[in-house]
């Protein structure tokens, strides 16, 4: 990572482009025709949404779920196997805090540019205020800005990188991250049980108390030509689990389902949970990460908060031996998360090309 010291070209803030009143987006943001969002509705695409799972009562009492036949456990298992995406409600994170976080970050992105530039990031760690993923010179860019920061492990938590405006932002980040880490740990237990493993198996496989956790706040400005670009290109998340707090009022996330794209309709005070590449590797592809992307629009901006729950960066992640059989051999070689995410930090989002290339190489 340390070799990625600077961006290959001057960084342009997408929000500044949007607010300048341009009528056509620069060529750097125009996607190839095959990657553009379709403006034509296909009769083959049904109006569907990802599964919605109510977690109320799942963690009540010392014994937790009643057993493998617990209906909520079954729903989570089916969602992970069939979709790789689901929404959770009654999850234990304070809804008021969720709403305050989203509005505080919206306020941050509407600060004067010079105030935000104090936190400008570099590709060395990506931490701070940014506008591109990947360092390939001449790459086609996404129509978005973002803010990235570390929460765990403690040694990477740099409060100087946390914005001090608006005034309550740092305190909200700390409390929100604490609560989402707790929810992530509970979900890891549920996934472990559904794989027929001890409830602490996946957490231990990710490094126990030394797991990584980070937050990326996405800002998608209004776009004068939304049919030509994407807010975030198609990709699967490189880490373990992602818990996304979406913009409740403006849909934009799309999930690949077979050969179609399904637009997720966010539910109030819900998190959107998805499987990452490291979970696919550790589960030996019983659970699979799924391609997703973000579309933009000309009428409204969007703010979303993606919380990533990842393996410790320097431990090898490989298919669990308990999930490897003669009929289902190990599909992936061992690789540390540091080695793995160097790909996306270099090339930017590229569908599922990385994890699939590991599989095909064997």
UniProtKB/TrEMBL annotation:
SUPFAM superfamilies: Clavaminate synthase-like
Superkingdom of origin organism: Eukaryota
Required cofactor names: Fe(2+); L-ascorbate
Pfam families given in the database record: 2OG-FeII_Oxy, DIOX_N
Catalyzed chemical reaction(s): jasmonate + 2-oxoglutarate + O2 = (1R,2R)-12-hydroxyjasmonate + succinate + CO2
Keywords, alphabetical: Dioxygenase, Iron, Jasmonic acid signaling pathway, Metal-binding, Oxidoreductase, Plant defense
GO terms (BP aspect): defense response; negative regulation of defense response to insect; regulation of defense response to fungus; regulation of jasmonic acid mediated signaling pathway
Claim: Oxidoreductase is one of the keywords in the record: yes
Domain Fe2OG dioxygenase: 210-311
An MF annotation (GO) of this entry: metal ion binding
Family label: Belongs to the iron/ascorbate-dependent oxidoreductase family.
Name of the molecule in the record: Fe2OG dioxygenase domain-containing protein
Organism (species): Eucalyptus globulus
């Amino acid at each position: 990572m340390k070799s990625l010291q600077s961006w290959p070209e001057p960084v342009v803030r997408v929000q500044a482009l949007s607010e300048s009143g341009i009528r056509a987006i620069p060529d750097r943001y125009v996607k190839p025709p095959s990657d553009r969002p379709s403006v034509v509705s296909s009769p083959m695409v049904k109006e569907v949404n990802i599964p919605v799972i109510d977690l109320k009562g799942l963690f009540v009492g010392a014994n937790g779920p009643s057993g493998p036949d617990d209906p909520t456990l079954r729903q989570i298992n089916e969602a992970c196997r069939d979709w790789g995406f689901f929404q959770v409600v009654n999850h234990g994170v304070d809804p008021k805090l969720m709403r305050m976080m989203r509005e505080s970050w919206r306020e941050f992105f509407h600060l004067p540019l010079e105030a935000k530039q104090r936190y400008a990031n570099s590709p060395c760690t990506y931490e701070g205020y940014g506008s591109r993923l990947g360092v390939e010179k001449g790459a086609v860019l996404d129509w978005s800005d973002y803010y990235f920061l570390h929460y765990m492990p403690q040694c990477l938590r740099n409060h100087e990188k946390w914005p001090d405006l608006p005034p309550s932002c740092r305190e909200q980040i700390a409390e929100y991250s604490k609560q989402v880490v707790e929810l992530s740990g509970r979900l890891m237990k549920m996934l472990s049980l559904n794989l027929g493993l001890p409830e602490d198996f996946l957490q231990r496989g990710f490094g126990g108390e030394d797991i990584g956790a980070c937050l990326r706040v996405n800002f998608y400005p209004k776009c004068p030509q939304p049919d030509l670009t994407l807010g975030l290109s198609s990709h699967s998340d490189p880490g373990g689990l992602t818990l996304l707090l979406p913009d409740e009022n403006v849909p934009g996330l799309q999930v690949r389902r077979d050969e179609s794209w399904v637009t997720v309709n966010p539910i109030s005070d819900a998190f959107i949970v998805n499987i990452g590449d490291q979970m696919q590797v550790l589960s030996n592809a019983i659970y699979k990460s799924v391609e997703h992307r973000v579309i933009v629009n000309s009428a409204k901006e969007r703010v979303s908060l993606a919380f990533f729950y990842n393996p410790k960066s320097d431990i090898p992640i490989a298919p669990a031996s308990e999930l490897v059989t003669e009929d289902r051999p190990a599909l992936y070689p061992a690789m540390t998360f540091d080695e793995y995410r160097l790909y996306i930090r270099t090339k930017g989002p590229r569908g599922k090309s990385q994890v699939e290339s590991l599989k095909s190489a064997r």
